[in-house]
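Ligand-bound model needed. adenosine-5'-monophosphate-propyl ester.
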Amino acid sequence: MIDKISTLGGYIHEYQKSVENPEAFWSRIAESFFWRKKWDKVLDWDFSEARINWFVNGKMNITENIFERHLFTRADQPAIIWEPNHPNDEHRVLSYRELFNEIQKFANVLINLGIQKGDRIAIYMPMIPELAIAMLACARIGAIHSIVFAGFSANSLADRIIDAEARLVITSDGGFRGNKIIPIKDIVDEAIENCPTVEKVIVVQRTNSDITFKPDRDIWWHKCMTNAKKENKAETMDAEDTLFILYTSGSTDKPKGIVHTCGGYMVYSAYTFKNVFQYSDGDQFFCSADIGWITGHSYIVYGPLLNGATSLMFEGIPTFPDAGRYWDIVRKYKIAQFYTAPTAIRSLMSMGQEYVENKDLSSLKVLGTVGEPINEEAWHWYHDHVGKNRCPIVDTWWQTETGGITISPIAGIIPTKPSFATLPQPGIQPVIVDGDGKELSGKSVEGNLCIKFPWPGMLRTIWGDHERFKKTYFSTFKNLYFSGDGVKRDEDGYYRILGRVDDVINVSGHRMGTAEVENAINEHPLVNESAVVGFPHPIKGQGIYAFVVCGSLSTGGEEGIKTSIRKGVTKIIGAIAKPDKIQIVNGLPKTRSGKIMRRILRKIAQGDYSNFGDISTLLDTSVVDEIIQGILKEG
Ligand code: PRX
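Prediction:
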């Protein structure tokens, strides 16, 4: 088992060891896992070539480290508690033994379908236990799962299936979200029309919705599981074999397939889970993310289960049947650690205290946040009303790319400060550099957040595009991993994340490339061009502001066009990318070389109509005046 850091002195000591001799440090942690063959070398790396290999030639399987390793002591302990969308429906508890049985059976189903180690499987599912079973069964046989958040459109799903050349899609007939039923299978059907690599679709029955079932292609989950063989021996995986691909947005219009590997991800997700949340045996852990995002991968499934923890998986939304749902779940299952996004906190905060005030939250020990900066007001509300002034808040900074938490307090051990992610986890060596890549050492500095030494959980490549991997993360600043975030280190040496410095915006904790949204807007037949920037939004953190140039206006006028643009973006990407504000303009501010000056648009979107800095390269200043006049006219 992984030892927990238990004092501030212990953290300082561990951190120092992890920097002085990272290989010895990680080797010691990795030894607490089950390896079929031990590694020959702990680390082989070169950031200039974007080469990172951990636990070289080590052989293992992550599911063996979840099940076989824990079965002697935890067979009857709940592994996953599943809370359904509707509070009156039956919840489900899967013990380690039960979950293991399901995974072995489903692994055999996959094998019977001819799925082999290294094949890619796309999973597009609501938050039901079969989602976790499917992903772990993939890991069991060495197939690579690519989970796509079920809020993405058919078009986005198809892009991801095509990029990964997935042979199989696992899905459900529909999904419950509050009062709505989401037609999941219809979306999959539409997506697959353009995906020649997909041979079969496995469908879980969840909503009993009317669906089109293609007997030569579609297979019911419950039918293929009925006669599946019960035992399955885990495939031997190399530590550096791919465990999963997870797509995320970048500065271009094409999402990146972030690749994580078996050995390093296992060690890192498990280590950070145990330490950051200070998980103890018997605790029930609740992470409210969707498994379609990295937070769900690492802190609903892999991190907790590798530690033999009990993880709560919630199908629904925080406001159904009312805004007290999370607190009802905390009370019902006596949750010890609760992990959510600042957006959720802000949204619940705006609905009033009465939903949280009279709930028994005495089981809570630790609160966590992730995905975006947390403002002080939300931090205090969370601390006072949910944590009742006694639970430390871990504001965890990390990314799809980092695999696990990288800068964060250790609960109850590293003193917290509102809106600060505080200090690096052991093994993480952050550096702050200026625009020229010069390291800004010391305290009270601000700049670009980089990491100068590899850690086991970091991404290894971008699926199918190693050059892009190298260019995106290792060429902006020489020999450093560049996160894309701005950061400040204060007088105490604490880190405060300032947000993205690239063309990525963070809407409700969801990462979005401005280029992706622009492309979707530009698909509209009346749109000539567009520019998308983020702006401060009281609930979402950042909202999407689109400046759009139209060739002509349709009969519906400006409002008609705005509605159809929103519809178009929802169809092409998904509802999460729908612009909050659309302004129809005559032109965009451009440099003489034709580059859009986003800096100016960002200022305007923030409501700052001056302080544009150097505008000498601007081709036509009247464009800016026109945009501002347009806003003022609308009031
Ligand atoms: O900008 C940072 C922000 O979310 C980005 C990563 O998004 P994604 O890959 O979707 O992963 C989110 C969940 C790990 C980062 O580049 N971010 C994440 N956590 C924080 C944060 N910003 C401020 N504070 C955080 N705690």
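The pocket of adenosine-5'-monophosphate-propyl ester is lined by residues 248, 294-295, 370-373, 395-400, 421, 483-485, 497, 499-500, 506, 511 (CB under 6 Å).
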